[in-house]
Each structure stands twice: as C-alpha cells, then as structure tokens.
Amino acid sequence: QDVYVVRVTWIESVAAGSMAKISATYSSYTFISTESANSLFYTWVDFDAADPTPAAFRSVPDLDSEGGFGSIQQFAVDPASCTVFFPHESGLWSAGLTAGSLVQLSTTPVSSSVLAKNGTLFYVLNTELHFGAIAPDTGVFTEDSASPATLPAAGATTLACNPIDNHLYIFQQGGTLLRSSDPADLITSSTTFSLMGLPDLKLVGGWSAFTIGPNGRLFLGGVSVGDGTSKTVAYSDNGGAGWFVVDTGVAGTAGANLETA
Fold this sequence. Notes:
By secondary structure, the protein is mostly beta strands. It contains no helices and 21 strands.
C-alpha cells in the first residue's frame, strides 16, 4: 500500500529475532505513525542480504484509514509479541499485525508516552505511573498488583529507561525530569521519583524533548532564545547530575521527540 503522508510523527524499530510472531527471515522491523488517514505503517529489511532494501510500507490492519484514529503522536512496540501500544484521546490501545487484534486497555485519555521495556508496559495517567506484564505470545497486557506508583505532578510526559542502570526517567514537557528510585523491573507502588536538575537556559516553551541513548547518555531538545531562535541540544553522561549544551545554530521549532542509535 502506498504511503501518502504530510509528516511522520513517530518511529520505532525492533529486531525481528526477538519477535515470536514474525518470521526471523527479516532482521529488523520499522513502524511509523503519520499525519494521514492511515495511522500506522510498518516495513521490514534483511540486513544480512547483499543489498539490504526495505520492503514497501503497509498499514497495520486495525490502524488503517478504516480505524478512525487519525494521527497517532507516539507509540511503543513490544518485540516479543509484535504488539503496538499507543496513547490516544480515547484511551490506551494495543494492536498486532493481524486484523481484529485491536484492544482498548483504558478509556481514560492518556497524555503520556508509553514504554515497552523487557516485557513490561509503562504509561502515565494523571499523577500515576501504571505498569504490568505483556504476554510474549499474545501481547495481552496485565497490570501488576503493585501498580500504580505515584508521581509528584501531572503533565504530558515522555518515558525512557536508561540501559546502563535500568532506572526509569520521566520527562514532563516544559522542564521537569524525574528518576525512579528503583530499577524499572523492580518498580512498585512504593517507588519514589527524584527531581533532576536541567540546564538553565532561556527557551521557547522550555525543553520539549527527551531521550536516552544506547550508552546511557541523556539528551534534551529545545529552542533557545538569543539574537534569534536556535535548535539546542543538551546531554548528560552522569545521569543528569551535569549537562553540556550544544547550540546547533539551526533556526526553527523543536518537536517532542529525539532519536538516537
């Protein structure tokens, strides 16, 4: 199916070797959400081939133009079950790559991003961090009996897990960054979240994006104000205790997502 879009809003890639429901013939699957009637697409590529070439994008069956979800701003993919989880104004949803797999997990609007990490799903409702297991064979989500944990404040959030120490970071747009007291796989309702200091810069609307690289480096993105406006990135190699700021010199606005590899 051809992809007709105005803008790609989110990208997730997963290794096919860990996806139980998909042939491991292809070594990587990539999912994109778009500003189009078809909400979510996916493709695959075999990097062991002499000339790795992505297959044509096709829509996720329950999230095509008939699904009626419109633009999905963010989503997460569980590699084992090949299940996509995404927040929406109508609640929290999941869908697989077969028609009829769409499931509504929550009827409460979800303003946070979602995170699928090592078979666990994390998402935020108001001031509560909810979490639970994702069944590797079916993608069914079961909330943990120790869920939820309480956050200091509500707000639109981005969730990320540091691959080095496995602690969960929760970024609230505008300039609040929280770190869990427990590793992600040990979070309970008793887990607390400490406030991390951020670079003090004059920004348009504050820091707008956050992510963590594969080496544990933390990244922030925003637009700084000086003689003009410039896209700015800050990074930390010590878990947010100290930051280095890089002014890219590129004018324009900043989005809500950063990608690393």
